[in-house]
Design brief:
five-stranded antiparallel β-sheet; 1 helix; rod-shaped
Amino acid sequence: MTTPSAPFTPEQQPAPGQPAPAKKGSAIFKKIGGVVVAIAVAVAVKLGLPHLTGDALVHAKAGECVTLTGPDDAPEVETVDCSSGKADLFKVAKVNDNTFDVNTCTEGQTALAQELDSDKFVLCLEEVAAK
């Protein structure tokens, strides 16, 4: 049976074939740093990524204009200038908060139920004639 070697002092180098002693402090900082980075990424994805990629939902106000693109089951809404003349341009006639009931819009209006964070609402839209 062999006796364990004494810990290395900063001036000593480990013998060839022996691993260098691990620094306890740096391992803890790496773990804490990893957790901090993971939390930062999660927060950025939740709060910032949809806005950066343009995928954020729009809670338009009455009188504003929006364009609708994408499939009918997942339309993308973007607020635009009413005089833009873009295709699929709609003016928000009314916003019904705290509901997903698309029947709150009048006949002839396009109803679009949306949820933004914990807010749910229906945009009642009127098509703007192309210029």
